[in-house]
User: Fold this.
Amino acid sequence: MSKPSDDSVVVCAPCVRARWFLLFLLFACPALAQPLPPQVGGQWGAIIDWPHVAVSMANLPDGRILTWASNERDAFPGGRPEFTYAATWDPSTNEFIELPHPSHDMFCASLVMTDDGRVFVTGGRNQGNSPWTSVFDFRDNSWTHLENMNRGRWYPTSVALPTGGVFIAVGQGGGQFPELYTPGSGWELLTGIDLTESLLSFGFRDGTGMWPLMQLDPNGDVFLHGATPGMWVLDMAGLGTITSAGQHGADWFADEGTSVVYREGKILVAGGSISIGNNASSAKAMTIDLNGPAPVVTAVSDMNFPRQFQNEVILPTGQVLVVGGNTNGAKFNDAAPVLAAEMWDPDTDTWTLLNAQQVPRTYHSTGMLLTDGTVISAGGGLAGAGSAVNHWDGEVFSPPYLFDANGDLAVRPVIQDGPGLMRNGRELHLHGEPGPRSVEPRQDGCDHPHDEHRLTLPGGGLRPGRSG
Assistant:
């Protein structure tokens, strides 16, 4: 945030509190807010009815979105056997196709995207009795079972690896050892990585034994950074090793905040709880740079609002959009939602308030970048039939970069040619009309609301006949 000038007025504490209250009225309550021009604050579209509460979401290569709930459309799993209500949504036609999984309850399972665009889903609501692995193939709209994991897991974290494998850790029923999936070989317990000290000693809650914060580092290892105090590097060679990387020193507990890789080897962590003993939401944020010999942790500017259960989306500009969440940190509760979106610029370390969405997106909500540069924000709730916090809908946000200086839709850049496949460690050459600034080389998945890894590659401003 910008510092006051030498001749600025010192503001008293009650005035500061009044300013925060005014911000809340203007941006958390859209009925009271005068919308910003779209080239400044973006623009939200109409509410889109959904066939279930969208608890989990994945971006498919053909531009559709896959979402699912549980074996109930708007409630925690009931007595029905393994089953999941799922559907695809086509943003270009607003068409939904219901594609339930008939034999795997994927409620709060973990998901990643494979290199060929399939959705790889592991674990589920039956905890130790949910060792299931399923994949969704967008080419024929099919669900297929793969080999079961060695442990059932509910609320685990998984990471897609550059080798084509998948790493998964903890979750209820999962125990202290993570597992590695290798295509053609199946699952193997990594007994050289014991997560007792790093996670399980803190108990089973979000950010510890459930949904720990993990991302791929530039060396191809898994980096564990919370929400517990320590940072650890997990090497999957052989039966695996775990090495301490020190402590991040955060003075809040990012259990139900968000964690995304916003640039190569750089992670943004924002929001969560004030502390492990105080569930009220925090506005704090930090970055972790993994590009050197040791992680470098830097406190960055606070968000404009404390948030928990929000979703972060990496935009093609390299900025990070934050949507939804609440300030009280309560699950299944829309009493204190944050409706205003905001956007973090890593070059200036500033958070910019944007226009407010219409529907609270809190616990069990999802958000994702679409292939046309807009953002879908959906779901929230799953609190049981008839609950007012169940949101069977979504809404699309058009960020400011989609508009010109007059507020009209801007002319979109065009990529004229490029390869159909990008491999790890290889150069990518594209030709495009003036304007493209970045390339999104990976499809995305999110849940609870952990981003399963998206990486934006800067294009440097592509020009006709030039490659970037």
Q: What stands out?
A: The chain has two helices and 37 strands. Residues 1-22, 452-468 have pLDDT under 50 and may be disordered. The chain has two domains: 10-59+249-468, 108-247.
